[in-house]
Amino acid sequence: MPCPSNLDRPTAAASASAERLRIGGFVPLTTIDYPGELAAVIFLQGCPWRCRYCQNGALIDPSATPVIDWSQIREFLERRRGLLDAVVFSGGEPTLQSALPAAMSEVRGLGFKVGLHTAGPAPRRLARLLPLLDWVALDIKALPEDYPTITGIPRSGAAAWQSLSLVQASGVPLEVRTTAMPHWTASDLATLAALLAQQGVRRYAVQACETRNALDPLIPPPAIPLAQLAAAIDPASFEEFLLRGH
C-alpha cells in the first residue's frame, strides 16, 4: 500500500468537496476490478451516453438519490487500512462528477491506490485526474466513427479515443476493454484490435455482450461465441490479451 505524502493529504476544503459525491452503489471487496489488488468499488451516478448494452441503467441519471454518503465510505476505508489495497471509482461515468478529484485525494491520503473505470467521454476532466491515478480501465467501444450506433451520441468516439491518447501519454498503467457487439463479425473485432495494438495498447480485454437487463431491450443476444469471434485477433499483438465471458 502506498505511503501518503503531504501532497496526498486532503485539506478540510477538499474533504468538504468530496461530500458532494453522488454515489449509486458500493462494493466493499472485489478481486477482479483492479488487477492483482484487493479493492473496494464506488459506483458514481450519471452518464452522458446511452450504450445499448449498458447493464447499469440505474446509474445514468445524475440527479438520482445517492444510496450511500461519502462520509460512510470514508469511515469504512479508515477501518480497512492494511486490509484493502485499492479503491476503484466506476459508474455510470465517474469523471463527470466535480467532487471526484477531492474524493480521490482523500483515498490517496488514507494510503490506498486509486483506480478508475471510465469510457472517456470527457478528456479534459480525465487529464486533470491522471496525477491522482495508479491504474485506469478505459472502455474503447468501437472504431471512432462507429460510436454513435452504440452510445446514441454524435462524435462520442472522438472523445473516447482522445482519452486513450491522454492516458497512454501519462504513463499510468492502462487496461483497454471492448464489449463485443452482438452483430460484429470476427473481422470487425480484429480490425479494432489491430488499431489498438498499432496505437500501443499493451493490455487488452474483450468482453462478451450481456444482453439480459440491457438498456436497449431490443438488442439481440450474440450470434457468435466470444472465443470464436476473437479467434482472428493475434494475442501476440499485446503483452496481455484477455477474454471475459462466453
From TrEMBL:
Source organism, top-level taxon: Bacteria
Keyword terms: 4Fe-4S, Iron, Iron-sulfur, Metal-binding, S-adenosyl-L-methionine
Alphabetized GO MF terms: 4 iron, 4 sulfur cluster binding; catalytic activity; metal ion binding
Cofactor(s) annotated in UniProt: [4Fe-4S] cluster
Transmembrane annotation, as ranges: none
CDD domains, A to Z: Radical_SAM
Positions of the Radical SAM core domain: 33-246
Keyword 4Fe-4S: yes
Name of this chain's protein: Anaerobic ribonucleoside-triphosphate reductase activating protein
